[in-house]
Design a protein that fits this description.
Elements (H helix, E strand, L loop, with lengths): L6 E6 L5 H16 L4 E6 L13 E11 L2 E5 L1 H10 L9 E8 L9 H11 L3 E2 L4 E4 L6 H15 L2
Parallel strand pairs: 1-2, 1-3, 3-5, 5-6, 5-7
Antiparallel strand pairs: 3-4
Helix pairs in contact: 1-4
Length: 158
């Protein structure tokens, strides 16, 4: 299914800088390849629930955390924003992409993807394309991000 997209919101949580690095690389690539698309990067700490519905396409990005003795959680800041602050938002079948980072030292390597998918589907959104999954350090994985960006562009162009 092809969508015509003129605006993208990339909403993310990043504490170590890894997720922010990935979405920055992605944003730069998308802007370079499709300069007619408006792209906004927004940290979840600065977001309001209505920011989830403002653009044509939403991208949610989080690392996978191991907090409270439980592996495989969302970044705690994004967890609070999505599952508490935005729990009643209706995404109105909006296409939403997933970016999940993880660490191969853990059993639930990149389970943030599953939590994001559950949020999207529980709030009447449409999971769009395949998740971008980055395992371990994102530095040096720019080609993986670029391939995903190219695939995303092919899905949103007529």
């Amino acid at each position: 299914m092809l969508f015509v997209i003129s605006s993208i919101t990339i909403l993310y949580a990043s504490t170590s800088g890894h997720t922010e690095y990935v979405v920055s690389v992605l944003s730069n690539l998308l802007h370079k390849k499709e300069s007619n698309i408006s792209i906004e990067m927004l940290r979840c700490e600065q977001a309001k629930p209505e920011d989830l519905t403002r653009s044509d396409l939403l991208i949610l990005a989080s690392g996978t955390w191991n907090i409270g003795g439980v592996e495989g959680q969302l970044n705690p800041l994004l967890h609070t924003f999505l599952l508490k602050d935005s729990k009643n938002i209706n995404l109105k079948e909006k296409p939403v992409c997933i970016i999940a980072l993880g660490d191969d030292r853990y059993y639930y390597t990149s389970r943030a993807s599953e939590h994001l998918r559950n949020f999207i589907q529980s709030n009447n959104g449409e999971v769009f394309g395949y998740p971008l999954t980055i395992i371990n350090e994102p530095y040096g994985q720019e080609d993986r991000i670029e391939k995903w960006a190219d695939k995303l562009i092919s899905l949103i162009k007529e």
